[in-house]
Hints:
Blueprint: H1 4-7, H2 12-23, E1 29-35, H3 38-46, H4 48-54, E2 57-63, H5 65-78, E3 85-88, H6 93-99, H7 118-123, E4 125-126, E5 129-130, E6 133-138, E7 140-145, H8 146-152, H9 162-172, E8 180-183, H10 193-203, H11 220-236, H12 246-254, E9 258-264, E10 276-280, E11 294-299, H13 307-317, H14 320-327, H15 349-354, H16 358-367, H17 389-405, H18 410-427
Parallel strand pairs: 1-2, 1-3, 8-9
Antiparallel strand pairs: 3-11, 4-5, 6-11, 7-9, 7-10
Amino acid sequence: MKSLMNTAVGLSMTVATATTAFAEGHATELTIAIVNNGHMINMQTVAEAYTAETGVTLNWVSLEEGVLREQVTSDTATGGGQYDIINIGMQEAPIWGAAGWIEPLEFGADYDVDDMLPAMRNGLSADGTLYAAPFYGESSMVMYRKDLTDAAGVSIADNDSWDNVMAAAAAMHDPDNGVYGACLRGKPGWGDNMAFVTTVVNSFGGAWFDAEMRPTLDSDEWKAAINFYVELLGTYGPPGSEGNSFNEILALYNEGKCGLWIDATIAASFLEVDGVAYAQSPNAGNPVGANWLWAWAMAVPAGTDTADEAKAFIEWATSKAYIEAVGNHPDFGWGSVPTGTRASTYAIPEFQAAAPFAAAELAAIESAAPEATDIKPYVGVQFASIPEFPEVGTAVAQEIAAALSGAKSVDEALEAAQSAADSIMSEAGYY
């Protein structure tokens, strides 16, 4: 494998930082907790060159999304010290940074922090201080089989109506031949089914909380959105959708079993079927919040005795140099680089040629609206940026999955969800 010094321009400063820490007698072993998504898995291969150049041993702990969140939250909150670097996202980073749970990040001039897309930098900062560096960023969009829509005589437009999306799913639905009209998240979790479900609720004009931060899960907007979601996925989705999240649906899509999928823009990097087209997320009259905003980012838990080495690794793994290293790697290439973090990535000719989804992805990220509004009086698109949200979101996720599976009616599920959320928010002292 090529030396890191020859793989990409600008890496020398990062490598020098890590090597200096090594020379000063600090630990040369880092344990890194990552989500088991494709770009993170690829990093383990690319980072072999980092170890070869610096002598820093990297121990990878790859976990399913929900398990990662539970373990990382527990370990970081208690100062357990199990990990030196952790994958977290926009929900956690500002809150944990302000609480002192994770270290602030400051990198050298060659890192070019101003190249970071503003949505990503802002979403991972608190009071102007960056607490997590984005490894890849995403919004959400429609990914559909244009060969199937053409054959069925239907189309999907940017910011289409949900009714038209339902009609397209119905037209493509052919379960006898192993094709399902719509593959959507159903697996319970605040970052699993609720990531997609919340964008549907937003698009129907709903929100998690009102201006007094009281839950609004029993509102007409939530009822309309969840009834629509259950009908769409229950009628035109694959069996067992209540167990499907990102990785499960990606596998189904690549097996040719999905007509359309509305999910993270980053999924487009891993689609292997022909004829895929892209559209901006649909809505039911309210486009604000109809597409989410997220980054899987890297942070350093406070108090670790490997902070210098950890920050040096993060500086490398989220740099322009890393993107070039993946693009030029014989096992990956420009269609596999982590996207959604830097403006410069979208200007690379090789990336543009290899990534037909690039323009749609960037448009989705730039149109995402995490700011508080009159309808949504909190920061966040598919989550609320408050410490209690993971508990609220997890409780509600179970109820929505029960409605999808038919174990409860939509009204029963939302009544239970409202009660659980109200109890959590009241106990937390919001009212």
